[in-house]
Amino acid sequence: MFDPKKLLNDLLGSRVPGTESTVREKAGQVTQLAKDNPIATTALAAVLLGTGAGRAVTGTALKLGGLAAVTGLAYTAYKNYQAGNKPGEGGGVEILPPPADTAFDPGQAPQGEDDFALTLVRAMIAAARADGRIDDDERKHIGDKLKLSGFDGEAEAFLVAEMEKPIDLDKLVASAQTDAQKVEIYAASRLAIDPDTRAERGYLDQLAGRLGLPDALVDHVEATIANVTR
Q: How far apart are the first and last CA of the chain?
């Protein structure tokens, strides 16, 4: 079984083992594979590059690694929301792992840390697919690109299988077992895409609504992500 936390870390821009390139950078070098297929390029870029526009997580959030970055980002947004701050108030923010005594700590996940890491990966993939479909030819392009991007066989098979499944919003929402996880699932989904289409924005709005997140809290997640991506 592959390591779910490593996979999440790779998707958010960790170094490819044995190289000086991130998964994003390595994937960018082989974009020509799908250049003649915009749908495949968009879907895969969103999964491998973090957002459809190729924005990357930077600064302290990147150094934390995937799971800690998502949960730390969600915790930071929630803390600022609870404090009554305005979204984005104070400019840049330092993203730290959530304290161990909070529900945002992945070690507190009722379903287990690895299972919750997989939930976050599934959330990213679902968001990445919000504005398109993937047919047989596109799946082949995606498989080729995944191989060149440094994922191991099991992780690659998991990603391809997840991209073939219909988006199941009911299942994704039900996988949130705490209020903190609802914020974390939305944060991971938002990190996966830069919503510049009606379908992507509509998907995120629907997800936030189904998760029961207040608009003001969603605004804080958006503002926090804007401060840690480029």
A: 33
For residue 17, give both structure tokens: 């083992």
**What gap in Å lies between CA 30 and CA 132, rounded to an integer?**
21
Question: Model confidence over 46-101: pLDDT tens digits?
Answer: 444 343 433 455 555 555 567 888 898 899 999 999 999 888 776 566 778 889 98
Integer angstrom CA distances of residue 18 from 11, 38, 66, 151: 17, 30, 19, 12
CA gap 70, 67 in Å, rounded: 5
Task: Name the residue among 68, 63, 67, 59 with its Cα closest to residue 229.
Answer: 59
Nearest residue to 160 via CA among 29, 15, 47: 47
Report how many domains make up the chain: 1
8 Å CB contact between 195 and 23? no
pLDDT in tens, 150-200: 666 777 777 777 777 888 999 999 999 999 999 999 998 888 777 878 888
Quote the pTM value. Answer: 0.76
Domain assignment of residue 90, given as a range: 4-228
Residue 126 bridge partners (DSSP): none
d(CA 35, CA 226): 28
Name 46's Cβ contacts closer than 8 Å, sequence gap at least 6. 52, 127, 128, 129, 192, 193
